[in-house]
Structures are given as structure tokens and as C-alpha cells.
């Protein structure tokens, strides 16, 4: 599909960085609880501090990336920080030291997602025929990594312990840093273009703020599921934790065709309607998880989960970039920060629910989050249509 070698390298870089995360994050909550003997509230504290520091630092970095800081340099520094984080987790066995490393180095590594996809959008707009499709393919690269990563990570954990999975993540991120340093272009957008864009910055509109809230609701539901399921399966159902690796892998495999076809679906039905279908699919998925403890049912239900995440992860980012075309760096970072905030929300909820009730109860909150997102998307579509009619009316008056 892409003859340009640089385009292929962007896609491969997305895959490699996704693989780094896939070997680390699915195991992180289990590591904090099992290896560091943390209570549910201690787990919540760890994740809250890690994510909040990441949001603050990445927002600070984003403002500089839209002005005079080089995106490629930021990307390499953030991945180098991630390397230090995962490498340290191979030897850390103290809860407070783990928090310190997560806050100091994990906060900087949080800038990597936004900068990679901002750089990809800038490159796609200038050198690729369809930048939306290109971004979707990059995002699919991340999903492919999650097909192989979690099952392999859980197998490594079962055979050799947490340190083996974290070591593989460290090796993978080292490869990503080398690829970016050697092959990814330095200056897709010139300093003059960045400087010109600063004067065009405007406050976030009401419709953008509503959309960001929708993203937080949808991804909070997904992140709460990702965080609570390892603990639900291992501590409450007391089944083989490798179930989770297979479930994550199947969900990611289902995401890939959805991501690749999301652009075409949006052209036919409209972006908002496709996203509404996606979150409804998510609500149905959480209903299945609430009502069944059968491995077969849980595995088949990942088709619904794959459609949910495939649509939201692809169209969610592209739609926000389209709403803020004059601020691509800010839009990409804003989407990344909404994902981080959703992790923060889910981190607080998993600790509170786990402490007061049980990890199964977290699935009720996942279902409620998906329903709220679906309702707000319908409201968003109505407001979007009114805004378009208003703009068209103003254009006619001017004409």
C-alpha cells in the first residue's frame, strides 16, 4: 500500500513502540500487587501518581513541540526514559522505589505516543495521498503488537518471572530508539511553519471539550477492564492468568481489520455514527463479561471489544486532529492526555472498587462508562450538525 520507505518505517516504529508497551503494561498491575505486596489502594496510588505526572509533563512538552522543540528528539528522549523505567523494574522489589521511577522516568515517557502520531500526521499530510488511512495503518501497527505482546509476556512471566518480560520490553524499546535515530526524518515541519501556527491558536471550543469528555468515558471503561481483569481472573476466579494473554491477543487481532476499515466506514456512515456503534459494541462486551465466567464466552466476546477499541482508537484520534487542523501537535497531545486521564480515572476506580467491593464489580463501572459515552456521542452529533448549519448560514450571508 505504501511504496515510500519512510511511511513504512513510521508504521514499523508504531509496531515496535506498541510491542514495548504490550510487554510491560498488562503485567504492571499484577506486578505491583503480587511482587510488591501492594493493597488495592496502594495500586491505585501508584497508578494515580504515575499517570498524573505523565499528563503534566507531556502537556509541558507538547507546548514546546509546537514551537521550537524537535519532535524526533522529544520522541527519542521519551523512549529512553521508558527504557530506564522498564529496565529498573527488572530489579526493583520495593513499592516506593517503583513509584519514584514511575514518576521521574515514566512521566517523560508519556510524551512518546502524542509525538509519534503528531509527527506521523505531519508527514502524512505532506507525503502520503491519504493521511487518515496512513494514521489508521500506524494505529493498526500498535494493535498488531498487542496481538503478540500480552500472550508472550504472560508466558514469559509464567516460565521465568516478571523480570524476563520487562527485559524483553527493554530490548524492544532499544531497537525502537535506534530505528528512530537512524531513519525517521528530523524536520517534517519547519520552524517557520511552527512559529506561524502559534498565532492561530484559539481556546478549545465547547464541542471539542465535549468530545474530550466522551474519549475519557470510553477509554476509562477500557482501561478499567485492562487493569482489573488480571486481578479478577487470578484472585477471584482463580484461573490460569494466561487466559488474559489470549483474551488481549484476540481482542487486538480483531482491532486490526476494524482499524484498517474504519476510514471507509466513516466515509459511508459518518465518523460520529461509527464511533457510537463502537461504544455500543463496548457496552455489549461488558455485559457478556458481567454475565459469564466461561473462557469460551469471554474469548468470543473479544470480537465486540475489538470493534469497540478499533473504532475509538482510530477515529477518535483522527476526528480530534480534523477538528484542530491548525494545531496538529496540540490535538495529538490532547488525545494522548485524554487517554492518560482515562488511565488516571480507571486507576482511582480500581483501587476504590477493589478495596470496598471486589474486582468483578469494576465491570459494572466499565458498562456504565460505555453507556455514558454512547449517549454523549448522540448529543455531540446533534451539536455538530447545528454548528455546521450555523457556519453554512454565515457563509451564505457573507456571499
TrEMBL record:
It is found in: Cell membrane. The chain crosses the membrane at residues 7-25, 45-62, 74-92, 98-119, 131-148, 160-184, 204-221, 241-262, 274-293, 299-320, 332-353, 359-380. Residues 6-386 form the Major facilitator superfamily (MFS) profile domain. InterPro entries: MFS (IPR011701), MFS_dom (IPR020846), MFS_trans_sf (IPR036259). Pfam families: MFS_1 (PF07690). Its main location: membrane. CDD domains: MFS_Set. The keyword Acetylation does not apply. Keywords: Cell membrane, Membrane, Sugar transport, Transmembrane, Transmembrane helix, Transport. It comes from the Bacteria. One of its GO terms (molecular function) is transmembrane transporter activity. Coiled coil: none annotated. GO terms for cellular component: plasma membrane. PANTHER family: SUGAR EFFLUX TRANSPORTER A-RELATED. Belongs to the major facilitator superfamily. Set transporter family. This is Predicted sugar efflux system. It comes from Aliivibrio fischeri (strain ATCC 700601 / ES114). The gene is setC.
Amino acid at each position: 500500500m505504501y511504496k515510500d520507505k519512510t511511511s513504512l518505517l513510521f508504521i514499523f516504529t508504531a509496531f515496535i513502540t506498541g510491542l514495548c508497551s504490550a510487554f510491560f503494561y498488562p503485567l504492571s498491575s499484577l506486578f505491583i500487587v503480587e511482587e510488591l505486596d501492594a493493597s488495592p489502594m496502594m495500586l491505585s496510588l501508584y497508578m494515580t501518581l504515575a499517570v498524573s505526572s505523565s499528563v503534566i509533563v507531556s502537556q509541558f512538552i507538547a507546548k514546546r513541540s509546537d514551537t521550537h522543540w524537535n519532535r524526533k528528539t522529544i520522541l527519542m528522549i521519551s523512549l529512553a526514559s521508558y527504557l530506564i523505567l522498564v529496565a529498573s523494574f527488572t530489579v526493583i522489589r520495593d513499592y516506593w522505589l517503583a513509584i519514584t521511577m514511575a514518576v521521574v522516568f515514566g512521566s517523560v515517557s508519556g510524551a512518546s505516543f502524542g509525538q509519534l502520531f503528531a509527527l506521523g500526521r505531519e508527514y502524512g499530510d505532506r507525503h502520503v495521498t491519504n493521511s487518515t488511512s496512513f494514521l489508521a495503518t500506524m494505529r493498526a501497527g500498535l494493535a498488531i503488537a498487542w496481538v503478540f505482546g500480552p500472550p508472550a509476556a504472560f508466558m514469559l512471566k509464567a516460565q521465568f518471572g516478571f523480570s524476563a518480560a520487562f527485559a524483553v520490553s527493554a530490548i524492544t524499546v532499544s531497537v525502537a530508539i535506534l530505528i528512530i535515530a537512524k531513519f525517521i526524518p528530523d524536520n517534517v515541519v519547519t520552524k517557520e511553519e511552527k512559529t506561524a501556527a502559534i498565532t492561530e491558536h484559539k481556546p478549545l471550543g465547547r464541542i471539542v471539550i465535549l468530545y474530550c469528555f466522551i474519549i475519557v468515558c470510553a477509554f476509562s471503561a477500557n482501561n478499567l477492564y485492562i487493569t482489573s481483569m488480571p486481578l479478577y481472573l487470578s484472585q477471584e476466579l482463580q484461573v490460569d492468568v494466561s487466559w488474559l494473554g489470549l483474551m488481549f491477543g484476540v481482542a487486538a487481532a480483531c482491532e486490526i481489520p476494524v482499524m484498517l476499515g474504519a476510514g471507509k466506514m466513516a466515509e459511508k456512515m459518518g465518523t460520529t455514527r461509527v464511533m457510537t456503534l463502537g461504544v455500543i459494541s463496548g457496552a455489549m462486551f461488558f455485559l457478556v463479561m458481567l454475565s459469564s465466567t466461561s473462557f469460551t464466552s469471554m474469548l468470543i466476546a473479544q470480537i465486540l471489544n475489538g470493534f469497540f477499541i478499533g473504532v475509538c482508537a482510530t477515529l477518535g484520534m483522527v476526528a480530534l486532529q480534523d477538528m484542530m487542523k491548525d494545531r496538529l501537535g496540540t490535538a495529538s497531545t490532547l488525545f494522548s492526555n485524554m487517554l492518560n486521564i482515562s488511565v488516571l480515572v480507571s486507576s482511582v476506580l480500581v483501587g476504590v472498587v477493589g478495596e470496598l467491593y471486589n474486582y468483578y464489580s469494576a465491570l459494572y463501572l466499565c458498562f456504565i462508562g460505555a453507556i455514558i459515552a454512547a449517549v454523549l456521542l448522540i448529543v455531540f452529533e446533534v451539536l455538530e450538525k447545528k454548528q455546521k448549519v450555523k457556519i453554512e448560514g454565515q457563509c451564505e450571508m457573507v456571499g
